[in-house]
Design a protein that fits this description.
By secondary structure, this protein is an alpha/beta fold. The chain contains 11 helices and 7 strands. The chain has helices at about 15-20, 25-35, 55-60, 75-80, 85, 125-135, 150-165, 175-190, 205-215, 215-220, 225-240, and strands at about 45-50, 65-70, 90-95, 110-115, 135-145, 190-205, 250-260. Helix 3 links the parallel strand 1 (about 45-50) and strand 2. The longest helix is centred in the last third of the chain and has 19 residues, at about 225-240. The two termini are about 35 Å apart.
């Protein structure tokens, strides 16, 4: 086990609290994929970037052969501490780098990439490896949470990116990275289906956004002084924009699936 090295290691403990998904949305992912493509009753499933394992339950409960892999030891430790995982018998977990998968060609019916592509600067290498381990006719399912473009969260994300750019801090562009990765998958897949696994409403505030940002793997990896300065400037901007950083606004979120058949 490599206990060092992933930017997710420092944020694993609070990951699900800060990036919560309604249970019914998580549970809807497996049926939504199976309604879109043909898969065997008990499929060989690779969950790449499995994180703390919240996607695993429905696959394990339905009798799929589930293998969760992640490069972060701390995320996998959270995963193996899940009560339902402690009781489950038919699953495997491994600390693995997604660009170099230690599996045979054509080993899996389905590869899940749930909320992984946006943060993966190395998406092309990861997707080529994913295709190699996928059997002919198999499926890659990409999932991510979408917030309304005009909502508070999206505005704060844009503003933070602008502040970091002004501060000349190299910052990733998650949306562009995901779009490029999806475009590449579309160009090599036989079929592409888009589905919404579910939508929900949240009450959110700038204050909550800033607390969540501190626990975001990439932001938390910046030098402490840079984080503080960027958040101070964002704080001032949010007060001017929303009246108070504690002001709560309702916004819509959805969990979107891009399902590619090969
Ligand atoms: C935002 S979390 C999503 C976790 C989970 N799929 C979910 O939706 O709850 C992204 C996960 O992908 C993992 N990850 C990112 N890049 C990776 C790579 N190159 N190889 C393996 N895992 C990776 C991170 O360690 C992290 O646990």
């Amino acid at each position: 086990m490599n206990r060092n090295g992933s930017i997710f290691d420092t944020t694993a403990a609070g990951f699900e609290r800060h990036r919560s998904l309604p249970n019914e949305v998580v549970e809807a992912i497996r049926p939504a994929i199976r309604a879109a493509v043909h898969l065997p009753d008990h499929a060989y499933v690779l969950d790449l970037g499995a994180g703390t394992g919240r996607m695993s339950r429905s696959f394990i409960a339905a009798g799929d052969f589930y293998l969760g892999v992640d490069s972060s030891f701390a995320m996998l430790r959270e995963f193996s501490d899940r009560p339902e995982i402690r009781q489950a018998k038919s699953y495997l977990l491994a600390q693995v780098e997604g660009r170099c998968l230690p599996f045979a060609n054509a080993a899996f019916d389905l590869v899940l990439l749930m909320q992984v592509l946006s943060g993966a600067g190395n998406w092309r290498e990861m997707l080529e490896e994913t295709r190699r381990v996928l059997r002919p006719g198999g499926t890659i399912a990409v999932g991510h949470t979408v917030s309304s473009e005009s909502g508070m969260d999206a505005q704060l994300k844009r503003q933070l990116a602008a502040i970091l750019e002004e501060m000349q801090v190299p910052w990733h562009k998650p949306r562009e990275s995901r779009q490029k990765a999806l475009g590449w998958l579309e160009s090599v897949a036989v079929r592409h289906v888009h589905r919404e696994a579910g939508s929900w409403k949240v009450m959110t505030s700038a204050d909550e956004f800033m607390s969540r940002r501190r626990t975001g793997a990439r932001f938390a990896a910046l030098p402490g002084a840079v984080q503080e300065q960027a958040l101070e400037r964002l704080h001032r901007w949010a007060e001017a924009e929303f009246g108070s950083i504690g002001s709560k606004l309702e916004e819509q979120r959805s969990f979107e699936l891009d399902i590619f058949e090969f």
